[in-house]
Amino acid sequence: MKILVTGSNGLLGQKLVYKLKSKPNVVLIATARGENRLVDKAGYIYEPLDITNFENVKEVFAKHKPDVVINTAAMTNVDACETEKELAWLMNATSVEYQVKILESLQNENYKPHFIHLSTDFIFDGTYGPLTEEEKPNPLSYYAETKLEAEHIVQNSKLSWAMARTVLVYGIVDNMSRSNIVLWVKQNLEQKKNINVVDDQFRTPTLAEDLADGCILIAEKKAQGIFNISGKDFMSILELANKVADYYHLDKSLIKPSKSSDIKQPAKRPPRTGFIIDKAKRVLGYNPHSFEDGIKLMEEQIAKMGK
């Protein structure tokens, strides 16, 4: 099976590459803008790819004719999407349209590609949660609007498709080149800094490895439709911070509960999301780590890097 991953330099992209490259029945094409930033460059093909360039996408897709495309590339900085709307639309919606159109044009009797698209809990307004796949979207931010538009493009396509929706992804990338909510809490508390953490936003935080496993299960089973692929533990962001502090035996008194309205952010966040993952468990055999086990796995990876 030929699997092409977009956004292979990103958190999810990296996890997919490392999991897929060792599978004997998979030819892996990793793609991202610019150079390959992964430490391990063996066992897969790397192609520079700008998903916002129609001709570039056409050239790479036509050259490799992947059986499966896992589209992880996106502009995910929610606040930046509010201020850079044209770029957000180009990266999150137009780029999906390009990929879909090109795959549709390549499709024939003998070639039927499967398109797996990554989406987000932010397409919902967060009036309640956790949510099933049937929930009706109602985006609160421009980021969410672009991601919902991408869903519509995929759903209206003539391709075999699946949507992997996820929530608050955390994990470690090569060289620790970016942070996430877990590391942010840990590092600030280690430095004895007070942190303001919202107690009125609820999520099911997702370990990047689990999300990668969910995408791979969809690819292997050529499963179609929408799947909630997230962690299984539902908690507030404040609870999350406290769990991180407990795990590392750090001072919880430095964690100051606050409200979303107190934190000035350009984009509105849905208060309460989180996912019910029964469908993914039943159809795919998806089985994510607990939040504590996720932290443990991250800690083992940090130790291996000697950071």
Shape: globular
CATH C-level category of the domain at 2-171 and 205-232 and 274-289: Alpha Beta
Under the CATH scheme, which architecture of the domain at 2-171 and 205-232 and 274-289 would be assigned? 3-Layer(aba) Sandwich
Order of H and E elements: EHEEHEHHEHEEHEEEHEEHEHH
Strand-pairing-aware structural class: alpha/beta
Radius of gyration, rounded?
Answer: 19 Å
By CATH, the superfamily of the domain at 2-171 and 205-232 and 274-289 comes out as NAD(P)-binding Rossmann-like Domain
**Helix percentage:** 25-40%
Strand residue content: 15-25%
Q: Output the strand order for the largest sheet.
A: 3-2-1-4-5-6-11
Q: Tell me about the biggest sheet?
A: 7 strands, parallel
Count every helix, treating DSSP H or I runs of 4 or more residues as helices.
10
Low confidence ranges: none
Terminal-residue CA separation? 36 Å
Oligomer: single chain
CATH topology of the domain at 2-171 and 205-232 and 274-289: Rossmann fold
- What's the total number of strands? 13
What does this structure look like?
This protein has helices at 11-20, 54-64, 78-83, 85-106, 142-155, 181-190, 208-221, 237-248, 278-284, 291-305, and strands at residues 2-6, 27-32, 45-48, 68-71, 114-120, 160-166, 169-170, 195-198, 202-203, 206-207, 225-228, 235-236, 255-258. With 307 residues, the protein is α/β, with parallel strands linked by helices. The chain has a domain at 2-171 and 205-232 and 274-289: 3-Layer(aba) Sandwich (Rossmann fold). Strands 3-2-1-4-5-6-11 form a seven-stranded parallel β-sheet, with helices on both faces. β1 (2-6), α1 and β2 (27-32) form a beta-alpha-beta unit. α2 packs parallel to α4 (85-106), α4 (85-106) packs parallel to α5 (142-155) and α6 crosses α8 (237-248). The chain is globular, with a radius of gyration of 19 Å.
